[in-house]
Amino acid sequence: MNHVVVVGAGLAGVRSVEALRARGFGGTITLIGEETHRPYDRPPLSKSVLLGETDSTVVDSDLDALEVDFRAGVAAKGLREGVVETTEGELAYGGLVIATGARPIRLRGDGPQHVLRTIDDALELRALLVPGTKVAVIGAGWIGAEVATAARRADCEVTVVEAAGVPLSAALGPVGAHTVSWYARAGVDLRLGTAVASVDQGGLTLADGSAVEAGVVVTGVGVRPSVEWLAGSGLELENGVVTDEHLRTSMPGVVAVGDCAAWWSRRYGRRMRVEHWDTALGAPDVAVAALLGDDAVYDPVPYFWSEQFGHMVQYAGHHDGERLVLRGDPATDAKWAVCWVADDHRLAAVLAVNRPRDLVQGRRLIERGQRLDVERLADPAVALRDC
Ligand code: FAD
């Protein structure tokens, strides 16, 4: 193999290039990305960029030293075995890394609708967040909560409309209820159990026919993997690019990483697609090993974080109906955590709010599959590692 093509110049793409060189690949690497920017990090877009603290989040990676042929503004349009079709012609490859990430879902309606996925989205939205502006955020998920935080910081009038009964419902289920008071305290009008029918000129029309007036509408209702360019290629697709535990796809010489990859998790015995930074960071090394003929396994305990309404929120693991154990009282304590504990007393997942140590220690306990003393666990004064 003397030529590897990496499609998608986000974090997972650039990490794939770095991993190829770190593993001694001396051939040609072509990195194509449809955005016109150098690879950059997305988590700060809804945090420091929106808050006006920084304008650039370019990944600290020396593309020249990596001797990569980086082609910005070039999109992949199709794939057949050994060839990627791009907007600038065909690229023959010996190995291919698919790292095309995900795209935000937009809602119905002809009104202006902002999403937050790219640096351009973030800078455009930031310019509109001026005092007194009525901002409607659709979705009280991770992005919605962070946008609402920044909009309030800019003294906007903020309404968050959420179809579910609690914020963060898709990720945390009923545990998301513990964040409701954050919205009220920040002066955000949070409307739960409220579905949006359409985004119109001047605001939203809700499913019950009423309206929410807004000069700026931000839709934060989730993303879909960017795999439409692979339709008809023969590659197995199902909620993203299907891979095995080595991140190999159904096509020889092709691996997939990051937000677009639905990999087989040995740990959880199911397919996972995790749209978080840590996956884009860690998966490429395993995928590249597979491409170069090694059988490394990608089997992480998923991890992510969010910064909302002055709280550092971190989660590790994967839960599915386990028993909940609270560490601290979310109603009165500034620092608390929730643990999901399986019947055999193993920790399945931990959510830590302003308790970074619980996150670090909890993640290790999950990785080791260690059994816990549940009574001690409920005492926030006892370190998690001592439970
Ligand atoms: P992407 O970053 O989406 O990169 C994929 C790239 O491929 C894009 O540049 C895209 O334009 C390009 N592309 C797509 N299709 C094509 C094509 N056909 N041809 C060529 N190029 C193509 N995660 C956390 O854990 N914590 C956080 O706090 C957090 N905050 C976030 C805040 C925001 C605003 C966003 C948007 C995401 C956040 N995330 C967070 C998620 C994290 O940023 C993503 O999981 C990560 O960026 C995924 O990296 P990726 O390289 O797989 O995909």
Keywords:
binds flavin-adenine dinucleotide, 3 domains, Enolase-like, domain 1, alpha/beta, FAD/NAD(P)-binding domain, 5-stranded parallel beta sheet
Give the gist of this structure.
The chain has 387 residues and is α/β, with parallel strands linked by helices. The chain has eight helices and 25 strands. Helices cover 20% and strands 29% of the residues.
How are the SSEs placed, and which strands pair?
Layout: E1 3-7, H1 11-22, E2 28-33, E3 68-72, E4 76-80, E5 83-86, E6 89-92, E7 95-98, E8 102-104, H2 119-128, E9 134-138, H3 142-153, E10 157-161, H4 169-172, H5 180-185, E11 189-191, E12 196-200, E13 203-206, E14 211-213, E15 216-219, E16 223-225, E17 241-242, E18 254-256, E19 261-265, E20 270-272, H6 277-291, E21 303-308, E22 311-317, E23 323-327, E24 336-341, E25 347-353, H7 356-368, H8 374-377
Parallel strand pairs: 1-2, 1-7, 2-3, 7-18, 9-10, 9-15, 10-11, 17-19
Antiparallel strand pairs: 4-5, 5-6, 8-16, 12-13, 13-14, 19-20, 21-22, 22-25, 23-24, 24-25
Helix pairs in contact: 1-6
The structure holds flavin-adenine dinucleotide (FAD).
